[in-house]
Design goal:
alpha/beta; eight-stranded parallel beta sheet; 10 strands; two-stranded antiparallel ribbon; single chain
Length: 323
């Protein structure tokens, strides 16, 4: 994970070393507090040290209003005493109470996240999605102010076009403001564009650590959704349906063959392919129970051959680009 958080800082937390980031989107949604704590215990017990969440997680859940994931993680920090052992990443712009990226909103949202997390600093703070109604320089300065106040260690961006991300970086460099160290794109074996054509060259040029979300395509790349009947009526039906296609199923078949050759899980192979891509430092994958964790963690130990990586690259190239 070297290069994700390259700047020396005085905060006690260090840069993450885990090649897998634990996604917090399920905490307070499909995993209650008790189950979430068990997952966090198991992940950190296995050496994991990078947890990704957002202030909006999981506002879409029944009875939720946003911030549930941060609250669960904060309660785990309090119970475990492991705050200094974990790099925590969270995001701003999508919470129902804190929409957008105006300077005032960023300041208020960051403090709300800190309170829910029960911590005095956010290690990696993302702009969750572009806000074209706010001048970009205002947003860049707002993020820089949080760094100057010691509330945020490093800044990052997610769901930005390459042009807008490049403009953010240009503004930051021109005015000696905090420069983003990471970018979080939607990237996996069945959703390779526009990341590979647009964002990947930017990440390489600007030395950004790439932290892909939906690394397992909402569970599609675990192999458990082979027919539409497998996901209809499930919590992730809307997300999985966007990946489901004959070409996508061919990717799952190829993953299954390679997994069998290694006595591994399909999810393990899918994550190992991502981890082998240039500038990818830690794909994000979530687990709603401890039984799902071993397959995710095993990806760090799985060495795919050049031929296996190429097979997956070739078969996934036929998957239609998302509309």
């Amino acid at each position: 994970m070297e290069g994700l958080l390259p700047c020396p800082v005085s905060a006690p937390a260090t840069s993450p070393s885990s090649p897998l980031a634990l996604g917090g989107n399920v905490f307070g949604w499909t995993a209650d507090q008790e189950a979430s704590h068990r997952v966090l215990d198991a992940y950190t017990g296995a050496g994991g040290d990078f947890v990704d969440t957002a202030d909006v997680y999981s506002a879409w859940g029944e009875g939720n209003s946003g911030g549930e994931s941060e609250t669960v993680i904060g309660s785990w920090f309090a119970a475990s005493g492991k705050r200094d052992d974990v790099t925590i990443a969270t995001k701003v712009s999508q919470h129902p109470q804190f929409p957008g990226l105006s300077a005032d909103n960023v300041a208020k949202a960051a403090r709300a996240s800190l309170q829910r997390l029960g911590t005095d600093r956010i290690d990696l703070y993302y702009a969750h999605a572009d806000d074209q109604d706010t001048p970009l320089e205002e947003t860049v300065r707002a993020f820089d102010q949080l760094v100057r106040e010691g509330l945020v260690r490093h800044t990052a961006i997610s769901n930005y076009s390459d042009e807008r991300a490049a403009e953010w970086i240009r503004i930051a460099k021109q005015h000696d403001l905090a420069v983003p160290v990471a970018i979080q794109p939607h990237y996996n074996l069945v959703n390779r564009e526009p990341y590979e054509s647009d964002i990947a060259p930017l990440a390489a040029r600007e030395h950004l650590g790439v932290v892909p979300y939906f690394a397992l395509a909402a569970g599609f790349l675990t192999g458990k959704y082979r027919t539409k009947e497998d996901f209809v009526g499930k919590d992730r039906e809307r997300q999985v349906s966007g990946y489901f296609s004959d070409q996508g199923l061919a990717v799952v078949d190829a993953l299954s063959e390679i997994a069998a050759a290694h006595s591994a899980e399909i999810a393990t192979v899918a994550l190992a392919w991502l981890q082998a891509q240039p500038d990818v430092v830690a794909p994000i994958a979530s687990a709603r129970n401890t039984e799902q964790l071993p397959a995710l963690l095993a990806s760090a130990e799985l060495d795919l051959s050049t031929e296996e990586l190429q097979t997956l690259t070739d078969v996934s190239a036929a998957v239609p680009a998302a509309s």
